[in-house]
Amino acid sequence: MAYSDDIESIQNLIDVVRRLRSPEGCPWDRKQTHNSLKPMLIEEAAELLDAIDAKDDENIKEELGDILMHVVFHSMIAEEEKRFTFSDVVKDIAEKMKRRHPHIFGDVEKISEPDKVVELWNRIKAQEKADKGIERKSILDGIPKNLPALLRSRAVQLKLASAGFDWKNTEGVLDKIEEEIQELRKAFKNNDDANIDEEIGDLLFAIVNLSRYRQRSTAEELLHKTIDKVEKRFRFMEENLSTKKIKISDCSIEELEKLWQKAKLC
């Protein structure tokens, strides 16, 4: 595809979104805001990751299109409010990529090690913040609050560890988990809903710390694996009952438990 075709395709998408947002456009699209689109953008990103995992090129292409549509959509909302345009977004990211890769686009010596590239990227990023007068008052500044909670927990814990605020060994983390479980039991015993909620959060944070401390799979990855395992076993149960023309909702908990134990063996 020629460069001119790329420009034409992008302009066509911009025109489509602009039409949807116009007074003669779609009521649903006209109603959307940056905030209302946030959950959908997260969903589209997750669907793209699923497509990548499945190595499904057709679906990858479709999901990339959905995400690009969101980029244009957000840009159109900003343009309507005379804040910035899609062209500004494209120009800024192109300039940033060149600025952050002086070993490619500038006069910095070529770099062959990926780790060195990351170090250079972080130094340039920090200087950019300083040049804009953005002062980070805490080492925790800069961690996105909209990260999935398990990933955000790990990011916070890594920052704390970099400052020397970390466990001496795995036993310390395990002791903390035991402590949080005991505090959760106490909250249940006192029938204190607010404290129960708080202790569940504390327990989750401590478990994330355990996976982070081991420097293996992240808590996010481990939980996904467990969810996949549970889904596989439950689908086995559904299929087993379906062959007998039995609805899962008609089974007793004892019958379901027996079937679950059978699924674990498969």
Q: What features would you describe in this structure?
A:
By secondary structure, the protein is mainly alpha-helical. It is built from 12 helices and no strands. It has helices at 3-21, 27-31, 34-53, 57-80, 86-100, 102-105, 114-131, 149-162, 170-189, 193-214, 219-243, 253-264. The longest helix is centred in the last third of the chain and has 25 residues, at 219-243.
Structural class: mainly alpha
Overall pLDDT confidence: 94
Task: Please outline the major beta sheet.
Answer: none
Q: Can you count the beta strands?
A: 0
Radius of gyration, in angstroms, nearest whole number: 25 Å
How many helices in DSSP terms? 12
Give the end-to-end Cα distance, rounded to a whole number of Å.
49 Å
Q: Name the helicity range.
A: over 70%
SSE topology string: HHHHHHHHHHHH
Basic shape: extended
Q: Spans of 5+ residues with little confidence (pLDDT < 50)? A: none
Strand content: under 5%
Summary keywords:
single chain; about 270 residues; mainly alpha; 12 helices; extended
Quick synopsis:
With 266 residues, the chain is an all-alpha fold.
List the helices and strands and how they pair.
Layout: H1 3-21, H2 27-31, H3 34-53, H4 57-80, H5 86-100, H6 102-105, H7 114-131, H8 149-162, H9 170-189, H10 193-214, H11 219-243, H12 253-264
Helix pairs in contact: 1-4, 3-4, 8-10, 9-10, 11-12
